[in-house]
Design brief:
Layout: H1 31-46, H2 49-61, E1 77-78, E2 81-82, E3 85-89, H3 98-110, E4 116-120, H4 121-129, H5 144-150, H6 157-171
Antiparallel strand pairs: 1-2, 3-4
Helix pairs in contact: 1-3
Length: about 210
């Protein structure tokens, strides 16, 4: 009976020196570098299963599945397709190492310390690209004030000033504050031109 070969005959062992410690370095010297670093973190967070589960939980159980401005727009399918409901974040900051920051940001989301507002895709773009729309602070979901308390020593004074201005503007909102998103129909009356009327079908049948 042939004796079984030992495992050492099939496994090649390579001996290496102890590897040097690697230094993790983040370059945020310029505004472009900082923005690139932030986008990297956002990609890690939004690509994670934990974040997708969190957003789905908010839509399923916290009624954050309708646009805050247009309540009849939700994530359900319609005859014209499905409207995407996105969550607009109250912008705040933290510090370095993309994976550790991503982990901490996710934890803050689960602790309900991040301000969120459900918006349709179009309204989300309007809010980011226009200064005509103010999101009232009382429409924000999440106890972001706890975030401010916890990270107070890292938050610049300008952010508090910005929040105070938004609070003051929220208190002074009027119906006219939302004129930018109201429907407006214009009727053009041109002198010498009659109103459009339905034309009779004058096509003669060819026999």
């Amino acid at each position: 009976m042939k004796k079984k070969d030992s495992i050492s005959e099939y496994v090649k062992i390579v001996n290496l020196d102890t590897p040097e410690n690697m230094e993790y370095h983040v370059n945020i010297e310029t505004g472009k570098d900082r923005q690139k670093f932030i986008e990297q973190i956002k990609k890690i967070i939004r690509g994670s299963k934990e974040y997708r589960d969190y957003i789905q939980f908010l839509k399923d159980h916290m009624d954050l599945n309708k646009c805050a401005f247009f309540q009849n727009i939700n994530g359900e399918k319609t005859s014209r397709g499905k409207v995407s409901i996105e969550l607009h974040h109250l912008d705040n900051g933290t510090e370095l190492n993309s994976l550790l920051i991503a982990d901490e940001v996710l934890e803050l989301h689960y602790e309900n310390k991040v301000g969120l507002v459900p918006l349709s895709k179009t309204m989300h773009e309007v809010v980011h690209n226009s200064n005509k729309i103010l999101i009232p602070l009382n429409m924000v979901y999440g106890e972001y004030s706890k975030f401010l308390d916890e990270y107070d020593s890292y938050i610049p004074e300008e952010l508090y000033d910005k929040l105070q201005r938004k609070l003051d503007m929220t208190k002074n909102l009027t119906p006219e504050s939302f004129d930018a998103i109201r429907k407006e129909f214009t009727y053009i009356d041109v002198k010498g031109f009659d109103d459009v009327t339905k034309m009779e079908n004058t096509n003669a049948q060819v026999g």
